[in-house]
């Protein structure tokens, strides 16, 4: 499944956040694999629609979609016994589908900042610069080969031009993602450049900052068009240890309506370009993860490869229409349940029953 790789300077709260991601009891119960991979943290995507469906279909349980975060720093520590730590680190980022940078906003004189002071904008730049330099190196290595090919093969010229354009963006100190570049031609996409990956920025804030709308808007502005999440990693790591009622009390005392991990899951999902469709029956009401733009057979494949192979049709109704109708039977009688074929592009919140050959 798609993952976000967690990066950031030392002492910004990465481990604290990652502990919260891995200690989440709700996840551990439903997703035993979550604890198998020590460097992967899984967060459920909050989805109230599932509760409603479970009520309607008398489902025994609900299973939300999840988002996976890889603790890249953790991998690096393990790899440090070997050699080429820098390269290993970059290789690990390359494997992630999106980059999640944790940025320190919290002020605490007991926690040393590597640069001596808390400065979100310079922290972002430090990490960006590292990634940009790595990409420049990749491009400079690829360019002579492509240029040589282009001398004899005209059709290779657009690739050379695309690489040069990408290089210019990087030389200006910008990421390819922020410039909307880096995947124009297959030759460039194949290089799997780090800064073409979508970015999600997690600002690790104090309570005071979380309540300060203007400050949050300023921070968001720093990282546009990347996604931004604001949370207090320390509070998050405490919340996952508490029972429901104590967690609610703690949230209230810090003036938050929901755990920051909820917002993190939603943002991660968005950054990765994912969406969900829903199934419901007596066993479970469940949200399944697919790419935005996925077709009905691809959605069937998210449940089981056999469903995709034997796909015939999908019976589909939007969640809103189903709720309005009150039940699947009522929706069917009202002609609200559509029979969709292979070309159908899934919409977020489609409630689906697949018909397939086995
Ligand atoms: P890492 O090096 O990025 O993994 O950072 P850690 O998660 O180890 O955090 C470094 C120190 O900062 C630890 O002592 C944490 O307890 C502390 N810390 C992390 N998040 C917060 C926060 O939101 N507020 C405060 N005050 N301290 C934090």
From TrEMBL:
Residues 2-251 form the OBG-type G domain. One of its GO terms (cellular component) is cytoplasm. ATP binds at residues 11-16. InterPro entries: ATPase_YchF/OLA1, Beta-grasp_dom_sf, G_OBG, GTP-bd, P-loop_NTPase, TGS, TGS-like, TGS-like_dom_sf. It comes from the Bacteria. The keyword Coiled coil does not apply. Pfam families: MMR_HSR1, YchF-GTPase_C. Its cofactor is Mg(2+). One of its GO terms (molecular function) is ribosomal large subunit binding. Keywords: ATP-binding, Magnesium, Metal-binding, Nucleotide-binding. PROSITE patterns: G_OBG (PS51710), TGS (PS51880). Residues 273-356 form the TGS domain. The keyword Metal-binding applies. ATPase that binds to both the 70S ribosome and the 50S ribosomal subunit in a nucleotide-independent manner. HAMAP family: YchF_OLA1_ATPase (MF_00944). NCBIfam families: redox-regulated ATPase YchF. Belongs to the TRAFAC class OBG-HflX-like GTPase superfamily. OBG GTPase family. YchF/OLA1 subfamily. PANTHER family: OBG GTPASE FAMILY (PTHR23305), OBG-TYPE G DOMAIN-CONTAINING PROTEIN (PTHR23305:SF18). This is Ribosome-binding ATPase YchF. It comes from Actinopolyspora mortivallis. The lineage of its organism: Bacteria, Bacillati, Actinomycetota, Actinomycetes, Actinopolysporales.
């Amino acid at each position: 499944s798609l993952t976000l790789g967690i990066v950031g300077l030392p002492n910004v709260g990465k481990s604290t956040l990652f502990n919260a991601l891995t200690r989440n009891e709700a996840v551990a119960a439903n997703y035993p694999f979550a604890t198998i991979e020590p460097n992967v943290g899984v967060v459920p995507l909050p989805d109230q629609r599932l509760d409603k469906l479970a009520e309607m279909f008398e489902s025994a349980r609900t299973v939300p979609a999840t988002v996976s975060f890889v603790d890249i720093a953790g991998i690096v520590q393990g790899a440090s016994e070997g050699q080429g730590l820098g390269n290993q680190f970059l290789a690990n980022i390359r494997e992630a589908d999106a980059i999640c940078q944790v940025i320190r906003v919290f002020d605490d004189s007991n926690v040393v900042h590597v640069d001596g002071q808390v400065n979100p904008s310079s922290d972002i730049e430090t990490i960006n610069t590292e990634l940009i330099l790595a990409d420049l190196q990749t491009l400079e290595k690829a360019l002579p080969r492509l240029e040589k090919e282009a001398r004899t093969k005209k059709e290779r010229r657009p690739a050379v031009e695309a690489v040069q354009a990408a290089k210019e963006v990087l030389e200006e100190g910008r990421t390819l993602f922020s410039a909307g570049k880096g995947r124009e031609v297959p030759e460039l996409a194949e290089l799997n450049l780090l800064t073409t990956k979508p970015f999600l920025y997690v600002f690790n804030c104090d309570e005071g900052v979380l309540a300060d709308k203007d400050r949050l808007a300023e921070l968001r502005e720093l990282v546009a068009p990347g996604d931004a999440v604001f949370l207090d990693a320390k509070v998050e790591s405490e919340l996952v240890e508490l029972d429901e009622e104590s967690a609610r009390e703690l949230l209230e005392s810090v003036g938050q309506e929901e755990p920051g991990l909820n917002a993190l899951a939603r943002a991660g999902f968005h950054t990765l370009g994912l969406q969900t469709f829903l199934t419901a029956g007596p066993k479970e009401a469940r949200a399944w993860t697919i790419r935005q733009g996925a077709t009905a057979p691809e959605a069937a494949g998210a449940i089981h490869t056999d469903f995709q192979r034997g796909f015939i049709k999908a019976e589909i109704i939007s969640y809103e229409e189903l709720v309005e109708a009150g039940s699947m039977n009522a929706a069917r009688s009202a002609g609200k349940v559509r029979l969709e074929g292979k070309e159908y592009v899934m919409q977020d919140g489609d409630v689906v029953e697949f018909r397939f050959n086995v």
